[in-house]
Amino acid sequence: KAGVTQTPRYLIKTRGQQVTLSCSPISGHRSVSWYQQTPGQGLQFLFEYFSETQRNKGNFPGRFSGRQFSNSRSEMNVSTLELGDSALYLCASSTEGRVQIETQYFGPGTRLLVL
Amino acid sequence: ILNVEQSPQSLHVQEGDSTNFTCSFPSSNFYALHWYRWETAKSPEALFVMTLNGDEKKKGRISATLNTKEGYSYLYIKGSQPEDSATYLCALGGGATNKLIFGTGTLLAVQP
Cys-Cys with A45: which of A36, A58, A110, B97 at CB 3.0–4.6 Å? Predict the structure, then answer.
């Protein structure tokens, strides 16, 4: 099976712009979670989608949003970018959506740089 | 707020040394403890998911134990090799929400 893929891999934006990142889970996986990693921080949970529904959202401002399509592919959007949004954004997928107890399969990440 | 702590932050060992790291977590509302290995420029890769107090899991030279009553897990690497160099992350599946809470990781560097 193909692994989790994320596009683009690298992105440079300027403050105030918006960005959309994409994540394609492993075939058959219905749950997609998104994480942000900044230097010195662990992976910070952004949100989790299952069957096109957002079930959980982390402690991030409303500028961070996402969605999931019927084929389980997910996108996250960040509007009005700030310098502090520069980070590695990872997505992870799992089968049944019981994120707490299921192995998570991670993509390679999208590295976003905001200038 | 659930908090997951990992120690040490970083570790430098010689090839052939055995080593271990610690992951501490609140023992209430526990569902599972995950360990992932994250090599530079690659995706985090699952090592273990442990759910039961006293669980011990092994994959090659790497093993892990779990104590849910006191809220800690140990990851052991026997006879470290340079290819073991990576950041080792633990994550707690706990509480009422369907998500993982990650520690900040232990960076292991194995010198040949």
Answer: A58
Mutation choice for B interface testing from A5, A35, A43, A56 by most B CBs within 10 A = A43
Give the CA distances from residue B52 to residues A70, A98, B5, B55, B76, in Å, rounded to whole numbers and listed in that order: 35, 16, 20, 5, 18
A66-91 per-position pLDDT tens digit: 999 999 999 999 999 999 999 999 99
Over residues A26-40, mean pLDDT: 93
Q: Does A58 touch chain B (CB under 8 A)?
A: yes
Compute the nearest-CA separation of A62 from chain B (Å): 19
Q: How confident is the model at residue B70 (pLDDT cuts 50, 70, 90)?
A: very high
Of all residues in chain B, the percent with pLDDT exceeding 70 is 98
Residue B72's closest CA among B92, B99, B102, B101?
B92
CB contact under 8 A, B98 and A99: yes
